[in-house]
Amino acid sequence: MMNMIGRPGYWILASLCLTAWVLAADPPAAPKDYDAVLVYPTLDDGSIMHWLAISPLRYNVAYLGDSMNSDVFAENGRSELTLRPRAGDMVQKERWQKMHFNGAVQGPTMCELFNMAGHYFEYRITYCCVYLHSPVDRPGAVIAASSDDGLKIILNGRKLWSNQIQRSPTYDSDRAPAPLKKGWNTLLVAVDQVIGGHLLCARFLDGAKPVTDLEISLDPPTTDAKRFAAGPYNKDAAALMRTADSQKLDGKLAEALAACDQVLARYPLADVAPRAAYSRASIQFSLKGEKSLNQPGKAVESLEVLLTRYAQDLLAEYALLDLAQLQESVLKDLAKAETTYRSFEDRYPQSTLAAKALVGLARLQAANKNFEEALLTYRKAMKKYPQSDEVMTATLGIADAYQLAGEKDKARKQYQAAMTLAQDWHDNKYGVDVGKQAWLREVIEYARRRAK
Question: Is residue 228 in some structural domain?
Fold first, then answer.
């Protein structure tokens, strides 16, 4: 029978106060605002093309057609009138994320809101937020906006406008008095989606003329936050990162590490900063067997700092998996590795890498002879992420777990099932992908040897 056994960092900046990113759905206290932020300009006509946004959120109403009178954040004990979101904050298993639009959809100042979710949806809602710095008081300012479909506008905690409608947007169709104060202002808009397109355009007018000197931040700033123009800031950071990449390719690892440190010290807000942090960890230790400084402990520190500072970035998802693998295979700290694997779905529930984290956890459970848990975890990965390639890895992992448990007949049948699935994927699912076909041939050969 199967044996069922019971179940930082040294780069802290002196000049810039970067607070930890929210990793839980309902934190006990709001994190501090930022002492330094990147700022973006409006277009020449005043249009706002940079947004912090989240979607799709479900309606929190008793019936469809009344989304504009609903506060979807109330179910989490919050209010849309007091929100100060930041990238990475979670609501209804979705995350606020930074979006930069180029006006390519239905006009030069339209923002395609499906970009937030990465897919089409119906009967849901998108929230967009910006923090706007005005050099002067503008008591007579007006917000001019339009949307597909309904639109709600909240400025500095006051609901200014609500229009429950199904439509295609027309520029400046919805207007409302929107006094801007000198310094920072918080603008929150909600756009519902019934069917069809999902778009937003918004700008401020003053005396019928567009307001073009607003600075847009996507991070909640302190009153006196230092502002860095995003364009030149990111350009300089990218140039320094290219130097680090070149040095790494040339095998100059110490120099590359120093260049990454410079990026993080001088440009911690830059778009390339998460990549500098990730590259730093790979220079210290490479899980792929590439040339490194062979410092796994320091690599762990670097990954942990990345996860604290840049939790909203895609590289953080890879960093979390790398951290678990380092803890498991190099540092041999299996308890920490299991905790890290388990944390993945809580942090990144929508990630395409979540299946890989589950498979890693199951493999670790099987190695620790927690076979029942391992089988459940493998099957969870297969059921929850049926389109993932990890279905194959999990199918093979179940066979390995049976083998480790001494269940040879079950293992043999499972290896045969893995061979059948791998052959089907080889011939049909990945019939034109040479790399995947090579991987599947390796799976077939491995399963064939183990089934004997």
Answer: no
